[in-house]
TrEMBL record:
Entry keyword set: ATP-binding, Nucleotide-binding, Transport
GO molecular function: ABC-type transporter activity; ATP binding; ATP hydrolysis activity
CC terms in the record's Gene Ontology section: ATP-binding cassette (ABC) transporter complex, substrate-binding subunit-containing
Gene3D superfamilies: 2.40.50.100, Nucleic acid-binding proteins (2.40.50.140), P-loop containing nucleotide triphosphate hydrolases (3.40.50.300)
Biological process terms in GO annotation: carbohydrate transport
Family listed: Belongs to the ABC transporter superfamily.
UniProt protein name: Glycerol-3-phosphate ABC transporter ATP-binding protein
Organism: Phyllobacterium sophorae
């Protein structure tokens, strides 16, 4: 198979600091890839390496089959949209958008045509003579994307482009960027620290931590089958609950903090110490099929209106339950907690890998 971008065993050192460790990613033409992970894990470094703004220490990066190692940014056919999109304040929208083409002294007709098409695509046609200060945050963000689009690149690179926008606009722009990606039949690599953004926008999500890829796959693969405790806790909101437990020899797990037993449906050797992972949305105060039930105390209730998060103490460990709607429970209540056994996750306590 021919990939649009291939990253092979990429390493990046900043002096003695190992910022990217043996990174391997293959990206198909037309796909939308999200790089996600906590602050400082190397997302921007990886993106800047693709753009040619950062030198690699070892490994290879190929775009459309050609190694781009050592090639300057302008020879890579990629366009990058940054978080701080810093438009030129004294230039109107049109001149901000076609600045790079004017620098390259492209023919006037071509500049005009490409600017016109990009403005149309982004709904900016009526704003071409406005200065940035007369635009809303979302409009400015679209101009920043316009600057990338007019270059007609093979690959779009986005580094947290929406983090300066308010929540509602961010949700709107997510779907705008996704639609744009589809309309242009582009290949996009999108950096975000927001796992919800990654899950909703991308067809392939790469989860990084401390310069290492912890797991990559489709959004639902990561949600359904997290390879380790870190990915399990990072993907999903509210985050997965973890309870420390030890396997007994009679096919049960015993919570370490108490002698509460949880039945399980996996082959785990007696004596093995694990984390039991349970997603808030797989817990319920109502019985279901193939559930197991344990006692819990309600220690808090948080409501968003549509969802209620019930904070419970299970054997003195905090556990969050997500309930669509409004549960009949109050702080201080003793309740029966129903756990959907098929949806439990187990992680080895030592390696933190899925058990
Ligand atoms: N020029 C540099 N010199 C030395 N260390 C650097 C340099 N640039 C980045 N780093 C380090 O490399 C690591 C990765 O940085 P990077 O900017 O890629 O993180 P990030 O995942 O984009 O984080 P954020 O979500 O905060 O933007 C960090 O620990 C950072 O301090
Ligand atoms: Mg960054």
């Amino acid at each position: 198979m021919m990939f649009q971008i291939e990253i092979d065993n990429l390493n990046k050192h900043y002096g003695g600091f190992h910022a990217l460790r043996d990174v391997n990613i293959s990206i198909k033409q037309g796909s939308f890839v999200a790089l996600v992970g906590p602050s400082g894990c190397g997302k921007s470094t990886l993106l800047r390496t693709l753009a040619g703004l950062e030198k690699t220490s070892s490994g290879d990066v190929r775009i459309a089959g050609q190694s781009v190692i050592g090639k300057p940014p302008r020879e890579r056919d990629v366009a990058m949209v940054f978080q701080s999109y810093a438009l030129y304040p004294h230039m109107d929208v049109e001149h901000n958008m076609n600045y790079s083409m004017r620098l390259k002294r492209r023919p006037k007709d071509e500049i005009a045509e490409r600017t016109r098409t990009a403005a149309e695509t982004l709904g900016l046609s009526r704003l071409l003579d406005r200065l940035p200060k007369a635009l809303s945050g979302g409009q400015r963000q679209r101009v920043a994307m316009g600057r990338a689009i007019v270059r007609n690149p093979k690959v779009f690179l986005f580094d947290e482009p929406l983090s300066n926008l308010d929540a509602a606009l961010r949700v709107h722009m997510r779907s705008e960027i996704r639609k744009l990606h589809e309309r242009l039949n582009a290949t996009s690599v999108y950096v975000t620290h927001d796992q919800v953004e990654a899950m909703t926008m991308a067809d392939h999500v790469v989860v990084m931590r401390a310069g290492i890829i912890e797991q990559q796959g489709s959004p639902l693969e990561l949600y359904d089958r997290p390879a380790n405790k870190f990915v399990a806790g990072f993907i999903g909101s509210p985050a997965m609950n973890f309870l420390p437990a030890t396997a007994a020899d009679n096919g049960a797990l015993v919570l370490d903090s108490d002698s509460v037993r949880i039945g399980f449906n996996r082959d785990i050797a007696a004596g093995r110490q694990v984390w039991i992972g349970m997603r808030p949305e797989h817990l319920s105060l109502k019985p279901g099929v193939n559930d197991m039930t344990i006692g819990a105390t309600v220690t808090g209730i948080e409501s968003t209106g549509s969802m209620t998060f019930v904070v419970l103490a299970v054997a003195s460990q905090p556990v969050v339950l997500a309930h669509a709607g409004r549960p009949e429970a109050c702080k201080g209540d003793q309740v029966r907690l129903h756990i959907a056994l098929d949806n439990l996750h187990f992680f080895d306590r030592e390696t933190e890998l899925a058990a």
